[in-house]
């Protein structure tokens, strides 16, 4: 067997079949590696991409939109298809009604001014947060009330403004996956780069799962798992990663009792899983810098609530509503079994689903909801609809919630940069760097003159880390997860000096 062939035969195990794992494995195959296995704890592919049939079409319990176009790998992948796969969701999350807990609809003219105040901060924060040592929460609070105090806003009712801002903070928490905005680092917020273009592109009637089909090329190959066919081990958990064997290989202990020896392992499990399980998962324990990254990067919970009604009871041009709680009305639920409802912040229309509304819940209450029986959650949501909306609300036909926290394979929804991240001085780079051993044999096909290769010359990556949280600028998204998966596939190709690892990857990135 030639050296090149031996390298392509290296056993590579990818842990996790979410967007990052699927992207990594399919890229490795594309680069010529042949001995690739993906081990996934769930009985399905996709991880935090989870499209299920519901009502007239499908719904996404996790990722729903492609966020932006320029420099967005997911968007670029869809552009290579003949069919237009993505579509603008339109102004659903701009045109919503603001409804108070006594059923009063905030006048459009007032609501749109309040929306403009918070909308304007989206621009100013890009400049002002650069020098901010505090939290996103304190920045936004000061900004909002400073603007509200201006003479031109003196006619806005202070109570309504406060209720609106309370609600807005919940919305922002859903974007970050934080419990409170005081947890979010002001400066760290800028680590995230928004891709230019439409940030709410939906997958029409197909759902986000379509991306997995593209990555696996299962549409062309007509096999369910496309190029990953027979390379997938579903319903199998990796329990232990023994990465310090004398032979420089990695031993994995699997939940089915088997063990497996690999030349390289790519870990794509969520940051939530790493936070909870890295101590028992890695033997020996991870280096201190890696532990600091896992501790310091933040991971929070956002959940969705889908309600199917027998008919749409709302007007055609109505896109949904946000819930503005009057302080005195909160007393009706606080201290009761319905207290969790305070953190449901809105219900919105869903593309290609004429009869459903999708609600969002954050915070500890979002995690608490996961522990409640579904009929109790449904009753709570119906209480909200009937309390806030003036129309006659029919009983729902179907009801579905997500549960990202209680599932031990996720332990939350997505990552963000917290004040703790700042304090510990850590970040995605520290999470992403691989565990290596010194290479003792000439393992490369040839010596390319590239700088990255030179740097890594002596270090053979044996355990690599991908997943959305390891993306420096696109964390918390699917495009960040895909990018991270490709990054690690490319790292291996570069280690072995495989031709095509640079040009092939560049052309796709
Ligand atoms: C409610 C919600 C809404 C979102 N909305 C959007 C959106 O609109 N647009 C967007 O771009 N992003 C969105 N995201 C974020 C996006 O879904 C994630 O960033 C992305 O899917 C993460 O992919 P991943 O491969 O990094 O991780 P995961 O999808 O978590 O994949 C990791 C996989 O590892 C498996 N695993 C865990 N432990 C083990 C083990 N021990 N052994 C084997 N397998 C294991 C898990 O089961 C999982 O399948 C949303 C997420 C949520 C939860």
From TrEMBL:
Q: Does the keyword Nucleus apply?
A: no
- Please name the InterPro entries in this protein's record: Amino_oxidase, FAD/NAD-bd_sf, Flavin_monoamine_oxidase
Pfam families reported for this sequence = Amino_oxidase
- Annotated Amine oxidase domain ranges read 20-492
Q: Which domain of life is it from?
A: Eukaryota
Q: What class of enzyme is it?
A: oxidoreductase
Its keywords, alphabetically, are: Oxidoreductase
Gene3D superfamilies, alphabetized: 3.90.660.10, FAD/NAD(P)-binding domain
Name of this protein:
Uncharacterized protein, isoform A
- Species the sequence originates in: Drosophila ananassae
